[in-house]
Structure formats: C-alpha cells, structure tokens
Amino acid sequence: MRLVLYTGKGGVGKTTTACATALCAAARSRRTLLASADAAHSLGDVLERRLGPRPTPIAACLDALELDARTEMAEHWGRIHDYLVSLLRYQGLEEVVAEELALLPGAEELSTLLGVEEHCRSGRYDLIVLDCAPTDSTLRLLTLPEVARGALRVVLHVQQALSAVVTPLARSLVPIPLPDAAVFRDIDQLLFRKLRALRRRVTAASSTVRLVVTPERMVIDEARRAFTDLALFEIPCDAVIMNRLLPPAAAREAFFHGWGRLQEERRREVEALFAPLPVLPSPLRDDEVTGLEALRAHGEELFGERAPDAILGVAGRVRFARDATGYRIDLPLPHAERAALDVAKIEDELVVRSAGRRRALKLPRRLAALSLASARFERDVLVVRFGAEGTRP
Ligand SMILES: Nc1ncnc2c1ncn2[C@@H]1O[C@H](COP(=O)(O)OP(=O)(O)OP(=O)(O)O)[C@@H](O)[C@H]1O
Ligand SMILES: [Mg+2]
Fold this sequence. Notes:
The protein is an alpha/beta fold. The protein has twelve helices and 15 strands. The chain has two domains: 1-315, Rossmann fold (3-Layer(aba) Sandwich), CATH 3.40.50.300; 319-389, Immunoglobulin-like (Sandwich), CATH 2.60.40.790. The two termini are 47 Å apart. The chain binds adenosine-5'-triphosphate and magnesium ion (MG).
C-alpha cells in the first residue's frame, strides 16, 4: 500500500495535482483512492462529481471521498468525548461550552487521519492519494499522533491509578463522573493501537509527502520550512511539484520575457534547495484544470515516463537529536569534499557550502535561537552541534 500526501501553501495547486496523480495511477490500473483531508473540501468541484465521506466510484480503478472530521471524530473519540463532556458539565459548564472544550486540540484533524488509516488497512487499494490542507495544518496533522499519544498517555495513567483504587468506592461517595471501563478501553485502543499504527504509517518508507510550489518566493520559503519540519518528524518527502510554470512558447513572447527568466532562476533554485529530490515541472494552463479528462492529461504531462505512485526520490534524511552535550543535526553529505566545506549559521538557517554548492536548511525554532558550537564529519554525515543561547563557540 502506497500513501502519497500533497501539501503546500494555499492555492498553489495541491488539489489539482492530487487529482491528476490519482487519475494517472488509475489509468495504469492501480487501485486508487483519492481522499481530501482539507476541511474546506474542493475535491468534488475539481472532479466535477458529488462526493461524501464514503468512497464514491469515479472511474475504473478510482474511488474518491471527502473525509468528514465530525463523523470520524464520533467514530474514534465517541466515548472519550462523551466522558469529557460529562466531566466539564459537572464543573458547572453549559452543555454547548463543554461540547466545544471536549474537542481536544487537533482531535478533529487527527480523526480524519485515523479514517485514512482504515482505508489503508482495508486492502482495497494499491494507492491512496491524500489532498491535504495548506502546509501548517498538514504538519500539525502529521505530527499529531506523536503529540496526542503523549497527552493521552498522561490521562490514561492518572485515571487508571485513580480508578483502580477509587472508582468502586468513589462512585457511591463522590458525584464526580468517573470514567467507566469502556472509556478506558477506548483510550487504550486509541493510544496503543490506532495512534501507533498511524505513526507507523506516516513514517513508513511507502508513505511520502510531495510538496507543491509555484515560482514565488513566499511559497518556496514555506515549502522549505515544511521540508525541515517533516524531517524533524522523520516523515519522508519524495518529490517537489513546481506548478504554474510559463510554457516555453509563452516565455518567449516579449511581454513575458522577464517573468520567464525569473521563473527559470527560481526553478534552478528549487532544484538546488530540495536536491536530491526531483522537481517535476507543471505548466500553467490557459484555463482552470477541472474534469476528469483535463486532469488526466495534466497528470500524464506531469509524470511523463514516471509512474505516478513510484517513490520518485529519496532525500538523505536529516536527523535532529539531543544528547548529553546538547542539540545536534546529522546531515548526510555522501559526496562532500571535506576540505572545501564551510558551515555557518545565518539567522534561522544552517548554511553549508561545498564545492560551489550552497545548501541552506531552515532550522526548527528551538535550534534557531542557539549558536553554532561545532561541525565535523562522522563517516559521511556532517554532525553539527549547537551551543547555549546567544553564546559564541
Ligand atoms: N497548472 C495550472 N494551470 C492553470 N490553473 C491551475 C493550475 N494549477 C492549478 N490551477 C487552478 O488554480 C486554482 C487553485 O488550484 P487548487 O485548488 O488545486 O489549489 P490548492 O493548493 O488545492 O488550493 P487550496 O489551498 O485552496 O486547497 C484552481 O482554480 C485550479 O484549477
Ligand atoms: Mg485544495
């Protein structure tokens, strides 16, 4: 089972590219599910079909759906949520307020992903293409299993300790609603089975994120930060889609000359920034890309000889870690010439120059506040260490 997630800044063409990918894969007889995890669904509009939260057949080998966070939430968090509501109501809160508060932060989004995981396990599909919300919420979404597990584990421990001793007696003495065994079972299931499975799924080698960018500075910057954040959570990317590039014929016209040149520069820059991932150029069309035929044709041109569900590239994984001496980044640089290597931290970036090539890595906020302490090779990996805040090495 292959899972491909598309993300990028708002409006760059994520939904269009996700549809084009799914249609192309289905045309190659891959059993494909195209799913939207963006609460502001537009998948149905782009496909020109009515979609719901269950798979709807779209074409041979292709189903599509728009995940409904509320439905998924009820399914995966039902009893836990009800218990939280009763607890909050006991504190004197109105039902409506309690209902709102009991929506644990991120629970809705996380539930949509749990919904995807069920389709992944169904065995009905070779490929699931997930059209995600703009970058920030996607990152939050993908990193949530980790965060939620931590939070839930605390709840579970406290409650278990409490209830083993207190529940039978307490039920008759204190009016505080105590969770019953079914709630514990649900938390336990969610925590140890579903979230663990989800975490395994998003970090598996068969799951990759593809970043969609357009040739604009802000869009590229956001994708770079996402690339680093994904590495931080060990979620692999396999390609960058560069959308809305002027077709060569248009770029030759006098009016678009400067624009064409700028786009070409940005394209080379994106190739360097995300190397060794491939950057797939996707041309600007003379109209919106909607409907099955137009989307499939768009996909065929985008992927060319490549299989749309292949793992298109593997970036040497940047690792972020903390050991006894502090924070470190391990940067695989297999072909770097050590003598010609120059490492510096410039504002919130780690800049590595080698043999005329410059690689800048946007640092996670925690590290951006620290100063560079040392950089040295351990086999083919450049290990960069960070020192205390504000101090100089
Ligand atoms: N290569 C292209 N040429 C012409 N129009 C395009 C191209 N790619 C996308 N579009 C159009 O741009 C608009 C936005 O595209 P799309 O909905 O795919 O972006 P998105 O990243 O999913 O947006 P959102 O962040 O709102 O979900 C749509 O009208 C789409 O048809
Ligand atoms: Mg979209």
